[in-house]
Design a protein that fits this description.
alpha/beta, 9-stranded mixed sheet, 15 strands, disordered N terminus
Length: about 450
């Protein structure tokens, strides 16, 4: 067995190789899916990150994450963190969207650097407040626009910067949400209702807007238009004979959105991760069955209180028409969140239709080169968004460890600019107008 000193020496060596100079500490505010994902980095790399406290109102979720990280300090709210000296270097804020602003502003004032789940907040005013608070307190803010950190998207950024396809003239980007993902999250789930959460474009695609804006820099958005609606998941689309709950429904077997298919079939196949893990704290047949009989995830998708768009397109004009881009968010797709990106330049074209392969066509040589970015992930394949979740938290830990905010691609100013474009797109859609960006 390795001695304690040997283990310490190896940990220090691994930390140095990773660019993390010393162990960084964090508190987790919100122990749901995203808080669990980001804090997983501490489990895999304890020589780089340690979780020292968990704040979560739900007992099962709080205790589960505390046990995973062997945390002794737990709270049912984040506010007690303000009553004691700062416990850690940074806070992971992964509460529900409308609950981002208050803890972000307060914890920044208390001296915590912030890893803030997207979206920053659900109003432009709250986004401005968060950015201002972080600047005033001189703390680092990294908004979790994870797409910017994926190996494939970083490769695209490098290619654009190198001039590989000349000047970028237009971008066509699609976010295929996935038919059962949309039913789970945006019809039955936490993001179904704009008043309770946020518009689907903000909740689901703020980091797609961020990606488009970043690829077009230094060009600036000058006008935005948008079209979309809730077209299918309404009472008008409810099949004859359908019940209000899938467990009682005579037509469930022919419905692609049946809760029986989405959740119970997965449980029977031994799958207990997302989305099953969201339905019940203990993801087994009995618990999930009870949840579907009485909870929100067992409701008919045509009998919910959802109102967010199930399809939406956004058109961006850059530099008064010199460049353009489109974003298409659509629920009705086979693939889940596997973005389809096509970038058109004056000397070539870039295509990326999966998480790992970037294809470049050169107009001059008429040659196409496929670049495999999968081997660049540098982490286990279980990290989602094509490894982007890993690279985001790893980059932020490095930034905090070295006190180097320049490592953060999605800082306060950057994230704020992208969010303001989302709000402008929603204004355009609702007012049926073209919105000028000052």
């Amino acid at each position: 067995d390795m001695s304690t000193s040997d283990k310490a020496s190896r940990a220090a060596s691994q930390g140095a190789e990773s660019g993390v100079a010393h162990v960084v500490t964090c508190v987790v505010v919100g122990a749901g899916e995203r808080g669990t994902v980001y804090s997983q980095y501490a489990t895999e790399f304890p020589e780089r990150l340690r979780v020292v406290a968990v704040c979560e109102p739900r007992v099962v979720h709080r205790e589960r994450l505390a046990k995973q990280h062997e945390v002794l300090q737990t709270f049912d709210d984040w506010k007690p963190l303000l009553d004691v000296p700062k416990l850690a270097d940074f806070a992971i804020i992964a509460t529900q969207d409308q609950q981002h602003c208050e803890p972000a502003v307060s914890l920044a004032k208390h001296g915590y650097h912030l890893l803030l789940e997207k979206p920053m907040a659900t109003t432009a005013e709250d986004c401005h407040a968060i950015a201002a608070a972080c600047k005033a307190a001189d703390v680092m803010l990294c908004v979790c626009h994870v797409l910017r950190y994926s190996p494939a998207n970083r490769k695209i950024s490098t290619l654009i910067a190198s001039g590989a396809i000349g000047e970028v003239v237009s971008i066509n980007h699609t976010e295929p949400v996935g038919y059962y993902h949309f039913a789970h999250s945006f019809v039955r789930g936490n993001w179904r209702n704009e008043a309770e959460a946020a518009p689907a474009l903000l909740a689901k695609c703020c980091h797609d807007v961020d990606l488009i804006r970043a690829w077009m820099l230094p060009a600036r958005v000058t006008r935005v238009s948008s079209f979309g609606s809730l077209s299918h998941f309404t009472a008008k689309s409810k099949p004859p004979g359908a019940a209000d709950r899938c467990v009682d429904c005579a037509v469930s077997i022919t419905c692609p959105y049946s809760a029986e298919k989405i959740y119970m079939d997965r449980i029977r196949a031994g799958h207990t991760g997302w989305p099953v893990s969201v339905v019940a704290a203990v993801p087994d047949i009995e618990s999930v069955g009870e949840a579907l009989a009485s909870g929100p995830y067992g409701r008919c998708v045509y009998s919910c209180d959802n109102d967010v768009c199930d399809h939406q397109i956004v058109a961006f004009e850059f530099d008064d028409g010199r460049r353009t881009a489109t974003l298409n968010m659509v629920a009705f797709t086979e693939k889940l969140c596997v973005r389809q990106t096509h970038i058109f330049g004056t000397r070539g074209q870039i295509d990326c239709t999966n998480d790992r392969t970037v294809s470049v066509f050169d107009f001059t040589t008429k040659e196409r080169v496929d670049l495999d970015c999968g081997r660049e992930i540098g982490c286990g394949g279980h990290w989602s968004h094509g490894g982007a979740d890993f690279h985001l938290i790893h980059t932020f830990v490095k930034a905090v460890s070295s006190n180097d905010p320049s490592l953060i691609a999605t800082d306060a100013d950057d994230a704020l600019s992208s969010h303001l474009l989302v709000f402008a797109a929603e204004e355009a859609r609702k007012s049926k107008s073209v919105v000028n960006i000052e």
